[in-house]
Q: What sequence folds into this?
């Protein structure tokens, strides 16, 4: 948070487990040029950089969707198992977002990404999380894809499905996808699919 319009009075780590929580006492410059008083403590959940990749087979006009347990949604009374696209966290400074997209496609879905196209990057919950997500569409061949995936050492139990693109977009329209990364990726595919197929189908 190295910004000339922000003054950090104090920063401390309140918790460091599966998630890390930092607490800031700060003030910032206002739109009229003056400064705020020191704000009440602000907790920030430290997640870092994440990557999602929508796996798309343009020849078969199908996508790969995964389903896995999500404790946050379950605790809120929502769906405990969510349908999503492949995603994961950047592991260290030397790993690029493109590297993560290819690695997670293999680990979670058993897919080899042949080509990547960036969709967007965004902050899913900037009021409380520092997480920054980069989203790609990855060209794949979905022949033989399906079943289960994930890494045992990461306690992942993932169901992998190949879904026609029309059906996946219909899930979006029917409000059956309840996570932002999948909504963003499939909304993009709905607009870009014809162009992708022209460029990616050999």
A:
């Amino acid at each position: 948070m190295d910004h000339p319009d922000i003054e950090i009075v104090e920063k401390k780590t309140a918790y460091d487990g599966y998630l890390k929580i930092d607490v800031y006492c700060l003030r910032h410059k206002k739109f009229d040029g003056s400064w705020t008083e020191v704000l009440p403590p602000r907790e920030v959940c430290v997640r870092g950089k994440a990557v999602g990749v929508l796996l798309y087979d343009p020849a078969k006009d199908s996508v790969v969707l995964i389903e896995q347990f999500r404790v946050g949604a379950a605790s809120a009374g929502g769906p405990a198992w969510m349908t999503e696209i492949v995603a994961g966290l950047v592991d260290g400074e030397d790993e690029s977002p493109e590297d993560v997209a290819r690695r997670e496609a293999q680990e979670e879905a058993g897919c080899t990404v042949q080509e990547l196209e960036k969709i967007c990057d965004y902050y899913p919950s900037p009021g409380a999380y520092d997480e920054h997500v980069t989203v790609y569409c990855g060209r794949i061949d979905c022949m033989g894809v399906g079943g289960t995936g994930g890494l045992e050492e990461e306690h992942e139990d993932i169901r992998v499905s190949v879904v026609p693109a029309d059906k996946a977009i219909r899930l979006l329209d029917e409000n059956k996808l309840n996570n932002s990364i999948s909504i963003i990726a499939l909304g993009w595919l709905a607009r870009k699919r014809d162009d992708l197929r022209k460029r990616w189908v050999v």
Summary: The first strand starts at residue 6 and ends at 16. The domain at 49-200 is CATH 3.90.79.10 (Nucleoside Triphosphate Pyrophosphohydrolase). The chain has four helices and eleven strands.
